[in-house]
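Need the bound structure for nicotinamide-adenine-dinucleotide, inputs here:
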Amino acid sequence: MISIEGAKEMKFEDKVALITGGASGIGYCTVKSMAELGADVLIADINVEAGEKAATELKAKGLKAEFVRLDVTDKANIARVKEHVLATRGRLDILCNVAGWGHIQPFVDNDDAFIAKVMSLNLTGPIELIRAFFPLMIEKKTGKIVNVASDAGRVGSLGESVYSAAKGGLISFSKALAREGARYNINVNAICPGPTDTPLLKSEPEKFLEAFLKVIPMRRFGQPQEVADSIVFMASNRADYITGQVLSVNGGITMVG
Ligand code: NAD
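Answer from helper R.:
Posting the output first, comments after.
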């Protein structure tokens, strides 16, 4: 009898996962899929109403989900969430940094507040969150960290100079930390969505959306679930030997070696 190892299922029972930006778009699809696969999921988001609604819906289906209010740009808030996770679960197995934000505009129009927001939401916030939970993962000698960056961070995107810098920084940080985490069985990977059909993309002017469609070889936007599927895979036992990698999910808009 031939054993097909690759056919093993992804296992999330007994795993505690925290997903930032879990109230909307790619983050919400990630939350839903991981909860359906058996994880105990903390939906960490600044949007209280949408986060509570998501948690209530999942709990009504008998799944393990809790909303925690988190502003990833606020270190004190991160510390409170860490205390809550420790007090209620005593561990964190999976951390997905999905929350992020950007806006297309010429570089010269970026003011101090805009630059600070883009850098903290997409780079320093995720770094601080990992800084809070990495020691716990080292202690347990296991962990999966998935950082949602962007193709902008791989190739540089027109009108998104600061966002590209922040996401590029997140990619480099993920690779470097993967080297450090490997000896503790902590995997660190980055997922790079291309233009994906979420409220974030839809907040951009129609002319940019049309321009994106023209350069995507598959001639359609990604669905948030398609990106979430890769995040869930990277966070699963099926990706135990994958670390320091960058995976684009983008209909072929970039093909980075
Ligand atoms: P979205 O706007 O649908 O969801 C983002 C979520 O993050 C929201 O629930 C929002 O409330 C939350 N959030 C915002 N600020 C926060 C904060 N300070 N603290 C905690 N949560 C906060 O966006 P999305 O399209 O699903 O984006 C998810 C990730 O994918 C982001 O990192 C984004 O940069 C990246 N991305 C998206 C696209 C795209 O086209 N949608 C492309 C490339 C990369």
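Comments: The mean pLDDT is 96. The chain has one domain: 16-249.
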